[in-house]
Design a protein that fits this description.
The structure is a homodimer. By secondary structure, the first copy, chain A, is an alpha+beta fold. Chain A is 27% helix and 26% strand. Chain A contains five helices and eight strands. Chain A has an eight-stranded antiparallel sheet. In chain A, strand 2 and strand 3 form a beta hairpin. In chain A, helix 1 packs across helix 2, helix 2 runs antiparallel to helix 5 and helix 4 runs antiparallel to helix 5. Chain A is globular and about 50 Å long. Chains A and B meet through strand 1, strand 4, strand 5, helix 4 and strand 6 of A and strand 1, strand 4, strand 5, helix 4 and strand 6 of B.
């Protein structure tokens, strides 16, 4: 694991995690937490903008193999936790499986790893081999738009990381543009999620705690030439 | 303005803004940025889960007075920028104006202030007085669910702030619960957005740069007692 992180010890130093740290505050519900395990999580919500949204979501869940991740849903969102590549694989596949021609749909998500408020449980880390939905994701060539906001936490010198993430988007032909509070990209569903996976992989190399917030949408009716 | 922030100078020290800093990197599009102005922004997307989503969104935009903020929309999201209370007022009113009985709808947003990659333009800061949609927001008593993830950036000692934000939710009767990567709350549309406004006000007192990511939804078909 990366520097500064041991189980059940508050993350000292320059961390500024906002998802609820305070591991040494006994009055807060996340008191005493922390994990050494390489758990990546993605909390996300799927929004098909159609009267038929329930069956689209349930249908997509049926087709998606989420056996390589731990999962929990509530009335607001679902969270997958486990090895990063399998978490991204499952989210990408769910989105691809929910795609329906002509239906405008978005997925809003946050990928998080290394939060000092995290726990060692609620995860699956025992799987190996090819991601179970790899073929589905590979076939997801439908065009999509996306935006991302990346928070590398707890490090002073993060500019090179941010630059790498920008250049990676350029190299991948995702046409990044800078907008207030985010970076916008465009590409296929497959290429965008592959990029998110690689952004996360980059972050793992240099920061112990990061959060990537993203939106991806398809079949938008908005005509931006207007 | 708060410590460490002057125009066009990179934020030194422990900042770990991920929305694209690197003000001294001439190869990046946000080179040379920074602002002293008290601009708060909210980038958000509205998701009515119905075939009728376009007319719901356009209808809500028609009814919402966004004259106290600067605004720009694209195919993914809209951003409002200006004084915090007016930004939150406009977003809350848009959501309240879009509410339709029986229609499941969500709004996903990020409130941001103090990013060293920010600019002084694209904002309205000249307005005073009562927020233009105050009556609409006050009347928004419909029940809603929400989650929030708060990132106070650039400070070492933020735990007290996070604790205050948690306790504030308890005091307001919003029944906060800790979930992976976020805090969940429930209350009326009005009370939830009032809370978001107050969280942002708290953050302004102690950190120069924060981001609050949130989701709010209404009329969810999910039965959590199952």
């Amino acid at each position: 694991m990366t520097e500064g992180q041991t189980s059940n010890v508050p993350f000292e130093g320059v961390d500024s995690c906002g998802c609820g740290c305070g591991c040494n505050r006994e009055d807060l519900p996340w008191s005493g937490r922390g994990t050494d395990l390489p758990i990546t999580g993605c909390r996300f919500s799927l929004y098909p903008m159609t009267d038929d949204f329930v069956s689209i979501i349930l249908g997509a869940l049926d087709k998606t193999d989420a056996s390589f991740v731990w999962s929990q849903s509530d009335a607001l969102s679902t969270v997958y936790r486990g090895k990063r590549e399998y978490v991204i694989d499952a989210v990408a596949a769910l989105f691809a499986n929910a795609w329906r021609d002509g239906v405008h749909m978005a997925l809003e998500g946050q990928v998080s790893r290394g939060c000092p408020g995290d726990v060692s449980g609620d995860s699956v880390l025992s799987c190996e081999g090819e991601a179970p939905n790899a073929a589905t994701v590979e076939a997801a060539t439908q065009p999509a738009l996306a935006k991302l906001s990346l928070y590398p936490l707890g490090v002073e010198d993060y500019i090179d990381d941010i630059a790498k993430v920008w250049y990676l988007a350029e190299e991948r032909g995702l046409n990044p543009t800078s907008i207030h509070y985010a970076t916008r990209i465009e590409g296929s569903i497959r290429d965008i999620f592959t990029y998110f996976n690689d952004v996360c992989a980059l972050m793992e190399q240099t920061v112990s705690h990061y959060v990537l917030h993203f939106t991806i949408n398809v079949n938008s009716p908005t005509d931006e030439e207007e």
